[in-house]
Design brief:
Helices cover 0% and strands 41% of the residues. The protein has 181 residues and is mostly beta strands. The protein has one domain (4-163): Immunoglobulin-like (Sandwich).
Length: 181
């Protein structure tokens, strides 16, 4: 599945053939998301930690997923940067109540050939950490990417319409996400 651009800031420089591809699959015990991001200059912060959830990661280039068992609340947010940093959150009420101490047992990784090159990221999230049955049809959410420097960011999503102001925290647009090709 291709993510579509839903918003870009005035200074965004997006290569003509740029794309973000997402696949997902469930093993019953885990859900796996694989992203492929075309080459463009990266916006990163090497001062953010690796190996632990990095608050503020969304201000850098990230791919992310929001997931929850179908129709339930709360939902869970997971992000990975091209430097291999990650963030995980439990969203109780969007923009109002967030559990920053939530830990899922996420496994993740990144492959790249170097800075400003295309990159691939994967995330594996245990079903039990989401309160999810492991059945692909019982999982919903969205997939997103934030890319570029401040003033030149572009925002990409599966399942969201174009936006005047970027906002991914819109659970009313969550869709089945357990098996995407």
């Amino acid at each position: 599945m291709l993510l579509m651009k839903v918003h870009s800031e005035p200074e965004a420089k997006i290569p003509k053939d740029f794309r973000i591809q997402l696949t997902s699959r469930s093993t019953g015990d885990w859900i796996r998301f694989d992203f492929e991001v075309s080459a463009m200059p990266w916006t990163t912060n090497s001062n953010l930690p690796k190996g632990e959830s990095a608050w503020g990661l969304w201000e850098t280039d990230v791919v992310e997923v929001f997931v929850r068992p179908k129709g339930s609340s709360p939902y869970f947010e997971f992000q990975v940067s091209p430097l291999g940093q990650y963030l995980e959150l439990k969203i109780i009420r969007p923009r109002k109540e967030v559990d920053r101490d939530y830990r899922s047992g996420i496994r993740y990784g990144v492959q790249t050939t170097g800075p400003d090159q295309a990159w691939q990221a994967w995330m594996e999230i245990p079903a039990s950490s989401l309160g999810w049955s492991g059945k692909a049809s019982d999982l919903e959410g969205g997939a997103f990417a934030c890319l570029g420097p401040k003033g030149g960011r572009s925002y990409w999503a599966a399942f969201l319409p174009e936006q005047n102001t970027p906002d991914f925290h819109l659970p009313q647009y969550f869709s089945p996400i357990g098996e995407l090709k």
